[in-house]
Amino acid sequence: MDKKKRSVLILILGLLCAIGPFSIDMYLPGFPAIAANLHTSVDYVAYSLSSFFIGICIGQLLCGPLLDRFGRKKPLITGLVLYIVASIGCSLSKSVEVLIAFRFLQALGGCVGMVAPNAIIRDVFPVEENAKIFSLLILILGVSPILAPTAGSYIIAAFGWPVVFIVLAVVTVLILLAVIFWLPESKMADPSFSLRPKPILTGFANVLKEPQFYTYAFAGATASAGLFAYLAGSPFVFMELYGVSEKQYGLIFSVIAVGLIGSSQLNNVILKKYNSAQIIRVVLITQSTIGLLLVAGTAMGLVNVYSSIFLMFLFLSCQGFTFPNSAALAMSPFSKGAGSASALMGALQMGCGAVASALVGLFFNGTALPMAAVMAGCSLIGLAILLIGRKTIEYKARPEDVKAECLELMEKY
């Protein structure tokens, strides 16, 4: 693949990955306006975020096998069309219940843009390059948390919150055209791949039997759920608790997102000296420590808006290291069935995210403590899974090591 085609491919994959974050981040500044317009509360509007996460979780499990059966492009095109229709439905919602339902459908369509890039990367690029490609995607992906809430806050202030979903639909139409005309098919349809429930479930079960997959996929998913807790809780914390405006919230969100982008690119530099397994271990220890500091400071009333921004900046900067390395390590054992493995990994991420965001609402007490506690808890659980899982990986590898040593001794003597 020449340099130009490689750049175009990475750009399109990055835009596909950005659909999910834009769908999440762009309407966050509008929570108070949506609540007022639909005659409900901000914490109830947050359930539209949870329904989106649940939709992505379920949708990824469905579209993963479809990507393996029909190739990559046809499911992508179908999903993007559904996303566009559901986005228009969101803009026309007259009650929060209808908005929650359309957000679920929007997620079902948009989730294919999160699964397909992982599978295409595994199809096209060598395994040893995967972590670097994921880091490049995060560079493109990182634009969304900077632009989305800021653009969303200005759109909401000028035109109202429904226009946010119209903008999402228009942008996705452009991405759909890029997929149709410029995205090459990386895997042809496989008629032998069964879509019956039993073989699909068996395929998922086989993926879950791989220690390297479940260790890094679960560790990455639970650690990443801290980001979703932040997404669910930050509108209330900053706009209601600290009293910042919609535009100021967009700016704060953008500043914190810079940490995510910068760390993802720093990851490429560090990968020249250390491997992904070494990096993710140090990062999860660091993130857990920052999470505990955030909880302690919040509980004792020692943090204000500025210190909260600083600690959240550090906490979320860790995600720039966690995602590319955990994804690369989880996907590396799979050359066949990469679509199913990618779907399962994405479903785990969104499922953990849905739980984390729901917990923030469930334990809502009018303070920032529920958000801080869930964020810290996610990173601590991720670290525990990593440390325990690595022992399992080492144990599984040990018989092969012993066999290799025996063969070496036999050849020597």
Automatic annotation (TrEMBL):
Residue stretches in coiled coil: none
Residues covered by the Major facilitator superfamily (MFS) profile domain: 9-394
Protein keywords: Cell membrane, Membrane, Transmembrane, Transmembrane helix, Transport
Compartment list: Cell membrane
A Gene Ontology term for the protein's cellular component: plasma membrane
Transmembrane feature ranges: 45-64, 76-94, 100-121, 133-157, 163-183, 213-231, 251-270, 282-303, 370-389
Domain of life per record: Bacteria
Family: Belongs to the major facilitator superfamily. Bcr/CmlA family.
UniProt-recorded name of the protein: Bcr/CflA family drug resistance efflux transporter
